[in-house]
Design a protein that fits this description.
Elements (H helix, E strand, L loop, with lengths): L6 E6 L2 E6 L3 E3 L6 E3 L1 H9 L14 E6 L6 H12 L8 E5 L14 H9 L1 H4 L4 H13 L16 E6 L5 H14 L6 H11 L8 H18 L13 E3 L2 E3 L6
C-alpha cells in the first residue's frame, strides 16, 4: 500500500506540520492491517513540496487522525502501533479527532441567524474546529503541551501528521483552518483561502460538508479576530457534493 496525498504544510521553530492520507499496510507474517510507519516516513521524505528547512533525519511523530469511529481498522492499527509494545511510544503518539463538517451553508443562512451561529460556532459545529486549530499550533510551538508526557527526548523535533482516509476532505478542513489562521500573517484572508484551495492535493475539490465548515471558520475569524475577509467561496472550484462538483455554497 502507499500513503496518498502527503504534503508539507508548515515549519514552526524546529517542528514540522504535514498532511495526507492513512498509512496502513499488511503484515506479511500475520495478514493483519498495521500502521505503516516506514511507508509514511518515506512519503514524508519525498513530498513534491519539500520544506524550506531540511527535514531532520529523526523526529517524534504525532499523528492526528480525523476519521470516524466506525473506521475501526484504521484507528486500531494506529493505536496498536503507538501503545504495543509500551516502548513504541518513543516513536510518537496519536490523537483521534473525529471530523464531520456541516450541511449549514453560511451564504444560505438568514443574516440574523448568521450572527447567532458565528457567536456560538464553537458550540454547534460537531467538531471543535476553533480549539483544534489553536491546539495544533500550540503543539508545534511548544511540544511540552502534547497530551502524552513526558516526551522521550524533549530536544527532538516533532512532526505532526494530520490525516483522514485519503487526505482530501476532513484533512482539508483541518489544514485549511490552520492556513487561514496562521499562514502567514502578511496574507489577506483571500490569499490564505486561495492558497488553501490551491494546495488541495486530491483529484476532486473537498467535500461540501468540510468546505462549509471551513467557510464558517473563515467568517468567525473575520467577526471575532478582525481578519480581513474577501473572496471566500468565489472562483475556488466549489465543493464535492456526493460526487457532483459545483459551486454549492457561494455568495448570492
Amino acid at each position: 500500500m502507499s500513503v496518498d496525498n502527503v504534503r508539507y504544510v508548515d515549519t514552526v521553530g524546529n517542528n514540522f506540520l504535514y498532511r495526507g492520507g492513512k498509512a496502513l499496510t499488511t503484515d506479511p507474517n500475520t495478514g493483519k492491517i498495521i500502521f505503516d510507519y516506514g511507508g509514511l516516513q518515506t512519503a514524508i521524505a519525498n513530498v513534491p513540496n519539500p520544506p524550506p528547512t531540511p527535514l531532520p533525519s529523526s523526529y517524534y511523530l504525532v499523528v492526528v487522525n480525523l476519521e470516524h469511529s466506525n473506521e475501526g481498522t484504521n484507528l486500531s492499527a494506529e493505536t496498536d502501533f503507538f501503545s504495543n509494545p509500551p516502548g513504541q511510544q518513543s516513536q510518537g503518539q496519536m490523537q483521534f479527532w473525529d471530523t464531520y463538517g456541516t450541511d449549514q451553508c453560511y451564504f444560505q443562512t438568514d443574516p440574523a441567524k448568521q450572527k447567532t451561529l458565528l457567536a456560538t460556532f464553537d458550540q454547534w459545529l460537531l467538531e471543535p474546529l476553533i480549539w483544534r486549530v489553536a491546539t495544533l499550533r500550540g503543539w508545534l510551538e511548544d511540544p511540552s503541551t502534547l497530551p502524552l508526557q513526558p516526551l522521550p527526548d524533549p530536544t527532538q523535533p516533532i512532526l505532526v501528521y494530520v490525516h483522514c482516509d485519503e487526505g482530501c476532505d476532513r484533512t482539508s478542513e483541518m489544514i485549511g483552518g490552520y492556513r487561514l489562521r496562521y499562514m502567514p500573517p502578511s496574507w489577506t484572508m483571500q490569499t490564505a483561502w486561495s492558497n488553501m484551495c490551491n494546495e488541495h492535493p486530491c483529484s476532486n475539490v473537498m467535500g461540501c460538508g468540510n468546505y462549509k465548515a471551513l467557510q464558517w471558520y473563515a467568517f468567525w475569524l473575520n467577526q471575532t479576530q478582525g481578519f480581513s475577509l474577501t473572496g471566500i467561496g468565489l472562483n475556488d472550484g466549489g465543493c464535492n457534493n456526493g460526487g457532483s462538483v459545483g459551486a454549492w455554497c457561494t455568495p448570492s
